[in-house]
What we know:
alpha+beta; about 35% helix; six-stranded antiparallel sheet
Amino acid sequence: MHVNxxxxxxxxxxxxxxxxxxxxxxxxxxxxxxxxxxxxxxxILIRPQQQRTKQQAKLLSALKSGDKVITSAGIVGTVVxxxxxxxxxTLRSGDAKFEVTKASITEIRADDASTTTTS
Length: 119
């Protein structure tokens, strides 16, 4: 017989008598790595994102006229009006006055530069 034919026949042979073919592994140990990965993903990815979302919502609900803010585009300005119906904010920055969405506000700066509130 040729060597390749012999190894092919061995693939269909029953396992040796000393192997553990009769014992089944506990299903808990089979799914334990999957459960561990889900828990790790929750604490590394999902939970911090939920906390950032809550903090951003709290920041936007505390937004009022006269606050100094920074937008996601890097524009620094002072809030003139807050329109809850349209979810927009009117800002004044230097000589310009413009309207941005509330979601674009990333930081409310306090009057003194040492204290800032970020999202």
